[in-house]
Amino acid sequence: xxxxxxxSNTVAVTVVSLPTAPTLVGNSxxxxxxxxxxxxxxxxxxxxxxxxxxxxxxxxxxxxxxxSISATDTFYVSSFNGTCESARTxxxxxxxxxxxxxxxxxxxTIACLGNSCYLSVTQTGSTQSYNLTWTATPxxxxxxxxxxxxxLGTPF
Length: 156
What we know:
two-stranded antiparallel ribbon, mainly beta, five-stranded mixed sheet, 2 domains
């Protein structure tokens, strides 16, 4: 039969294992806008996405998301070894709206030097806890050295 000769070649194929998916260290909860503290651990380069599959890389590298967020967000993080990418691990960064806080002074808002004036804050909304820093403008003769710190509900 006058057909073409059969030619065969050997091809070497290297199969590379997928990297292990990152491990969630902890989700985070924050009050208002800010950089979330949710974190992940993993080998290789961590890639942050906002979708479980496909999508565009939001951040490459880092065990925490480095940009500020102002609403609850879910991230999906993979490990990338330069060739292959692992499955993604879900990370949740929850943002709670800050409560309304109202500052007030004791019955008199004018205090003579050496007399006391108590400052307090009333919280409207949830039972979130706050740390406060009081400052006076101008600070001269205010009785507040430069600033004074305290927790919500502790008068100064």
